[in-house]
Amino acid sequence: MKDLHDRREQIIKILMSNGKCTMQQLADSLQVSVRTIKRDIDVLGYKYPLCTENHRNGGVYISDYGVIAPPKLSEKEIELIRKVVSQSEQTGCCRLDRSEIEELKKLVAVHSWKRGGR
Fold this sequence. Notes:
This protein has 118 residues and is mainly α. It is built from 5 helices and 2 strands, in the order H-H-H-E-E-H-H. The protein folds into 2 domains: 59 residues, Arc Repressor Mutant, subunit A (Orthogonal Bundle); 40 residues. It is 58% helix and 7% strand. A two-stranded antiparallel sheet has the order 1-2. A hairpin with a 5-residue loop joins strand 1 and strand 2. The longest helix is centred in the last third of the chain and has 17 residues.
C-alpha cells in the first residue's frame, strides 16, 4: 500500500491527466476505499483548487480558476530518469536525440534541487 503522501500526490496526478473522476474511479485506481478518497480530497482541497459535484454524474476535478504546478517527481522517478540518460549517453540504445537527453537532465536537476538533492 502506498503511503499517505504518495497516494495524495497520485490523486492530483490522476486529476491533472484525466480531468474529472468519480470517487469510485479514484478508489479503484489506488486500491483504497471511497471513504479514504473522500478524506484525501477533503485534505487536498486546502492546498489545491478542487471541486466536487455530488450528483449522478458528479465527481472531483481541478478548478479552472486555480493553477497547479505538477507534483514533484519521486526519488524513484528521478533515479529512473538518471539511469535512462546515463545509458543513452553511454550506449545510444535508448534512441533519444541530444536535445531530449538535455531536457531529461534539466528535469532531474530541477526536481533534485527542489528536494535538496544532487
